[in-house]
Amino acid sequence: MSISQVNIDIFRSINDLGKEYNFLNPIAIFMADYMLYVLALGMLVYWFTRTNKNRMMVLQGGLAFILAEVLGKIAGTLYYHHQPFAELPNVNKLIEHSIDNAFPSDHSILFFSICFSFWLVRRKEGWMWLIFACIVGISRIWVGVHYPGDVLAGALIGMGSALFTYWLVPKLSFIKTALVKYEKVEQSLLPIREKTENKNF
């Protein structure tokens, strides 16, 4: 399908920044390609703090991502176009990417579904995660693999899915039961040492 001129103009304004400020390109490449490892590490850290609040948050984020991916695939059947570097001349392409349907942005779906889930539960540091999600979205435009519309659609799908799982997951008793059973197994394998008071004081 044809891309709107506004979408192309905004893409050009961001993507051309890589030509003008090429010293920022390594940062854009890292955010576009490798920030997902930071997100995965963050989820692991939250999970192994071993608090119910954090674990429910991680579960909500994971389920939001799954839901958002399904919705994203459905959206991709309704609207289809290739990556900017495959459709436009003189694109500043900074990373390798196959040519397929670029709508919506999978990276935006991933980051906004999980990072918005973090923000809903932990507002204080949640802002940091939301900022990361926005930077990742912009970086995907910067490196030439997505139009702004792809990123915006992915962000909206991700945040909508996060809101839904934030509302739904705490109501599902089988998830709470499964989490309790998991924690019993984890406690038997990785017991938490209880602090004991020194009776000499």
TrEMBL record:
* Residue ranges of domain Phosphatidic acid phosphatase type 2/haloperoxidase in the record: 61-166
Q: Which UniProt keywords apply?
A: Hydrolase, Membrane, Transmembrane, Transmembrane helix
User: Which gene is annotated as encoding this protein in its UniProt record?
Assistant: bcrC_1
> Entry's SMART domains?
acidPPc
Q: Which domain of life is it from?
A: Bacteria
Q: What is this protein called?
A: Undecaprenyl-diphosphatase BcrC
Transmembrane listed as a keyword:
yes
Membrane-crossing segments per the record: 27-49, 61-82, 102-120, 127-145, 151-169
Q: Name one GO molecular function term.
A: undecaprenyl-diphosphatase activity
Question: Which EC main class describes this enzyme?
Answer: hydrolase
Give its E.C. classification number. Answer: 3.6.1.27
Q: Which CDD domains match?
A: PAP2_BcrC_like
